[in-house]
Structure formats: structure tokens, C-alpha cells
Specification:
The protein is of the alpha+beta class and about 180 residues long. Helices cover about 15% and strands about 35% of the residues.
Length: about 180
């Protein structure tokens, strides 16, 4: 089952959901709008390596915005910290942003129960697009879960700002187990 807007508000008030900062005007009929934070990352290597940390460059979105270019992956983040120990959050781009040709999430819309932090956004435009810090970029829906809960305690917990891939940590763990 999906939480309705009034239930999102109630769950935020009683602590079942944490949305900071919370703004009542960002509540939709069955989702909560999240805004783009001020920081973007891009990878600097031509070839990315899943077994190694990849270097990045950080940009701050200025007052006049920042132009995103096709063929580049930008890691952004939500301005809001969002999480729940009760509900499963799913993040999607807003349709208004999609109609501008911006993909907000490539393959990872599902959040884990127990994650609390800013969400990293995988931004890819189909044509040059100027974005602004604070613009409504996505929406998060919350679903009820069934069964025992094992809260998230992974490598992105308490994320602040965009987070590059840490997949290489999983590979390092597998190598240690295999040896």
C-alpha cells in the first residue's frame, strides 16, 4: 500500500517518517516533492572502473543555475534528508522535469528501510538543460512493508551531498572473503 499525502504529513509529525526540512506545500496526493541540493559531482575519468574509487569534480550550482550537458552523468542530491524505519521509500523524477528531457534516476529508485540522509540523484539530460538549486526535481512515495525489518546499515547511511559509487567496497569485501 502507498501512503497518501495526508498520511505522509501525519507520519512526518509522529516520527514514522523523517523529512528535513519538511514543507507542507511539497506534499502531493501520494508523494512528497524533493528539491535539488546545491552540489553536483561528475566523474573525471574517461573510463570508470567498478573495482576502484573513481575521481570526481565538485560543482556548486550558482544563483544563475548550472547547465547540464548530454553525454555526462551528474550526481546531484536532494536538499531534504529523507528516511524511515517503517516505510519503503521510492524516488522518481517529477513529470515536469522529465518533460524537459532530464532523467533523475537511472536504475536505483528504491530506498531501504532504515536509510536516513540526502538522496543521491543520477542526472542525465537529453539536451543541454539549466538546473537550479532548490528546484523541485523529484518525488518520493512511501510504501508499507510486510514481514520482519532489518534496517539499512550500509555504506551510504547518513549521506550528505552527492555520493559517488562505492561499489568497489563490495568487491574488496568479496576478495577478502575469497582469500
Amino acid at each position: 500500500m502507498i501512503l497518501t499525502g495526508p498520511e505522509i504529513t501525519a507520519a512526518t509529525q509522529d516520527g514514522r517518517l523523517r523529512i528535513t526540512p519538511f514543507a507542507p506545500d511539497q506534499v502531493n496526493p501520494n508523494s512528497y516533492n524533493v528539491r535539488l541540493g546545491p552540489t553536483l559531482l561528475t566523474y573525471t575519468s574517461v573510463v570508470l572502473d567498478a573495482h576502484q574509487p573513481n575521481p570526481t569534480t565538485e560543482f556548486t550550482i550558482g544563483h544563475d543555475g548550472h547547465v547540464l550537458h548530454p553525454g555526462e552523468l551528474y550526481l546531484g542530491h536532494t536538499l531534504e534528508e529523507v528516511g524511515s524505519d517503517t516505510y519503503v521509500p521510492l524516488l522518481f523524477g517529477r513529470s515536469s522535469v522529465g518533460r524537459l528531457g532530464l532523467f533523475v534516476e537511472i536504475t536505483a529508485p528504491i530506498g531501504d528501510i532504515g536509510f536516513h540522509g540526502q538522496w543521491t540523484l543520477m542526472l542525465t539530460p537529453v539536451r543541454p538543460l539549466r538546473v537550479y538549486a532548490g528546484m523541485k526535481i523529484g518525488q518520493i512515495m512511501f510504501f508499507t512493508s510486510v514481514g520482519p525489518v532489518s534496517p539499512y546499515a550500509g555504506k551510504y547511511q547518513a549521506a550528505a551531498g552527492p555520493q559517488p559509487s562505492r561499489y568497489w567496497r563490495d568487491v574488496t569485501k568479496l576478495r577478502a572473503v575469497a582469500s
